[in-house]
Amino acid sequence: MEKILEITNSAQKFRDLNLIMFTKPNTMNNYGYVLEELGLKQFLVKFQINIMQKLGNWFFNDWSYEFDDLHAFSIKYKDGEDLSLDNHMDMSELTLNMCLGTDFEGGELLVKNQREQNQNQQYQFTVEQQIGSGFLHAGQHWHGSQRIKKGERINFVFWSRSSKFRGSVQENFYYICKNKIEKQGENLKNLKFDL
């Protein structure tokens, strides 16, 4: 992961000199890089196959259909730039968010329910950002980044996606469908016929 930090630092020099216009990492972050634009495509594909797919199969079976698409990027939080990130869900089935550096205070990750979970049973917890550590979560977990208080924080974010999952009925209504199916099953179990 140190190599990614080194490459993004080099890209920053080109950006500062207005030599290259880079794509924003996503629709919510203004600072960072799409890592495929920095020549890392081959590494990212291998990372998806050898790391993300296995982690997904182990820890997030509901979301870990065969991954066949990815979006990987760096994001940066710093005074005068992005300081925090509002509550959102990712455009992924599985997300890995790793803190690369540098020297900062604050900016904890706030994690909440998955998309259609019962909001009456809402939970949330914070994840302290520590250099070299990461947080793996379903892309459909509501989450955001709290305000950075001091310094500069850079993160590597990897979104794994599955066209099979995205093309399924589950994609937009995963928990709604799951609850309906469970409820229909209960109704069928209690159904009685008078002959």
Describe the structure.
- The protein has 195 residues and is α+β, with helices and mostly antiparallel strands.
- The chain has a single domain, classed as q2cbj1_9rhob like domain (Jelly Rolls, Sandwich), CATH 2.60.120.
- The chain has four helices and nine strands.
- The chain is globular and about 45 Å long.
- Residues 66-162 form the Fe2OG dioxygenase domain.
- GO terms for molecular function: L-ascorbic acid binding.
- Keywords: Vitamin C.
**CATH class category label:** Mainly Beta
CATH architecture: Sandwich
Can you tell me the residue ranges where pLDDT is under 50 for at least 5 consecutive residues? Answer: 187-195
Strand content: 25-35%
Q: Bin the helical content.
A: 25-40%
Mean pLDDT: 83
- Which strand order do you get reading across the main beta sheet? 1-2-9-4-7
Number of continuous helical runs: 4
Structural class: alpha+beta
Specify the biggest β-sheet. 5 strands, antiparallel
CATH topology group: Jelly Rolls
In CATH terms, the superfamily is q2cbj1_9rhob like domain
Q: How far is the N terminus from the C terminus?
A: 69 Å
Globular, elongated, flat, extended or rod-shaped: what is the shape?
A: globular
What is the number of strand segments? Answer: 9
CA-atom Rg in angstroms:
20 Å
Counting structural domains, the number is 1
Summarize the helix and strand pattern as letters.
Answer: HEHEEEEEEEEHH
Keywords:
4 helices, four-stranded antiparallel beta sheet, Fe2OG dioxygenase domain-containing protein, alpha+beta
Short précis:
This protein has 195 residues and is α+β, with helices and mostly antiparallel strands.
